[in-house]
Amino acid sequence: MGHTPTILAKLEDYLGENNLTLAQFAEHSGVHQRTLNNWIAKHRPVAIHQLDRITWAMGLPEGFFYELYIDNYIIERSPDWRRIEPLLFRCAELDKLDAIQLVVGHIMDNLLYSPKLFDAAEKLFAQGQHNAALLLYEGIAEGEKYQHSERLAVCQYRLFTIQVGNNQIRNLKAATRFEPFVERLNEIDQLDALKDLANVYRSLREWDKLDATARKMRAKAEIQYSLKHQQKKREWEEAEERLSRPMFVYITYADLLCASVCEAQGDYQQALQFTYAYADLDWVIETDENTQYWVSLYQHWAEGNTFVNKLHSGDTSVLPNYVEYITATSITDENENEKLSKLLNVVIAANRYTIDIDNILSKFEKDIDSFTQLPTSTDMYNQQVLPNYFAYFGYELAYYYLYKRMYSDGFKYLKSATLKAIRLNNETYFINCMGLFEHFKAYAMDEIKLEFSNIIEKVWLNNVKKNDTTDRRD
């Protein structure tokens, strides 16, 4: 079956319908007539920027001919990277993901293109074109799945970073898929990879996995920090540029994560020991401004978490000091959402030990009302850990008000927590919210009952659709 230059056929039809010569079209489009002649007579493909001009001159939408271009000049010919790379970037700009997938699927039959495709994926990733980069990384990962390469590990890291979002079931799958590839990364890159993986496990409340990941990060960070101060300074300056934070921070963050594991498991004394560990940073050698910033930040966190662990262990006498700490530090906190996690600790203690905190909640009323929008930051902590605090905080606050028979406020916060749990696809929080609603359902107004009934039905129908089961209603 012969080659049919479909784009050329459309161009010839356009010229005939508009009574234009090739010279006139060349002047109108800005594409040299000689280029057009070579394209028509010798079937030499035009560059993608020239095709864009031709498309514009014909009054057609941007990227109109891309699929045909791929069929005619990439799939039916030997792939030429000089044509492929600019095409991929233009497809990314126009969000033509199907076209990108078509190209990647074709050229990855030849693994020689893998390095070039990887470089293009890295550029797209750096530009924030994550949907396009995802397709390239997936193509490389599939093509190199039997290779034991660092490039494959980086692809898996990027896929993990891109795929992690608001859906916790999907997040667990992404983390499980990525975890075996961490050890294949560059030893420096492993630190950020473990940090990001730990934050996902923390948001999922996978405490055993979080503990193992944090301890692994600490061990690796200690080795790298020791080597840093034994080897040439210039080499380590270049290595540290790859990290998102100073190297010693990965050691202290591991201690903080281990403390959070102990706290979640009710071992507050051990949590305090880890907290004291990341508060004592006399061993840190660096003295630059950035180091001092992180040292003071961890000491600040340690002060607050010392109050928290004492409070949760039953020492309610520290509550006034903790509230004073929240008030004093809120002024200097760069991340307003950190106040949410601090207030959450207060409400948890109030529910656990039946403490009246009405005056505290009144003091922070404006802050509590502002905790409505989920964070939009791409940082893995803000993206993964804080959204769960929003749902958790709403549930605990609802629990507090409902047991105090303040039903209007209780159901308001319970509804908010339920909707956030649904958005996060967090089954644990959703079940807790539904259990709390059922327990106090008799005290809900008919309007509230209807709202919750509609929420439950929506979740059910979405689950029916997701699992392809039948809705048998008339």
Can you offer a commentary on this structure?
This protein has helices at 6-17, 22-29, 33-42, 48-57, 66-75, 81-93, 97-107, 114-126, 130-143, 150-163, 168-178, 189-203, 207-228, 233-240, 248-264, 268-279, 289-312, 319-330, 338-353, 358-363, 365-370, 380-403, 407-424, 427-440, 446-466. With 474 residues, the chain is mostly helical. The chain starts with 5 loop residues before the first helix and ends in an 8-residue tail after the last helix. The longest helix is centred in the middle third of the chain and has 24 residues, at 289-312. The mean pLDDT is 89. Helices cover 72% and strands 0% of the residues.
How far do the termini sit from each other? 53 Å
Decide which structural class fits the backbone.
mainly alpha
**What's the shape?**
globular
- Uncertain segments are none
User: Which whole number gives the mean pLDDT?
Assistant: 89
Strand coverage percent:
under 5%
Q: Please count the beta strands (DSSP E, at least 2 residues each).
A: 0
Q: Count of DSSP helices?
A: 25
Proportion of residues in helical segments: over 70%
**Alpha-carbon Rg, integer:** 29 Å
From N to C, what is the helix and strand string?
Answer: HHHHHHHHHHHHHHHHHHHHHHHHH
| Biggest beta-sheet profile | none
| Quaternary structure type | single chain
